[in-house]
Amino acid sequence: xxxxxxxxxxxxxxxxxxxxxxxxxxxxxxxxxxxxxxxxxxxxxxxxxxxxxxxxxxxxxxxxxxxxxxxxxxxxxxxxxxxxxxxxxxxxxxxxxxxxxxxxxxxxxxxxxxxxx
Length: 117
Known about the structure:
By secondary structure, this protein is mainly alpha-helical. 80% of the residues lie in helices and 0% in strands. The termini are far apart. The mean pLDDT is 87.
């Protein structure tokens, strides 16, 4: 039974004998790079780059489901790209907007408390 499933995968129109398998497989490098970049400071994250990665990930995920034959490898890598880049964008937004507002509020509280003394 396992042999027949492997044979079916091998002979699939988007299987390992075609570029339709290998191109999405190598795209996993972008997702892996995004995961590794999550240890970098958020101020080094690029809005433009991460927005493009999110957008293209969603577009290619949709494309992978409407083509014949359906390319689930392309769908999975594209969703992975979109997820990791959305995480990076969230980190960047929290760093740029939420943390600065928190710091402002904290400094205003300190100033208010010191003027009351």
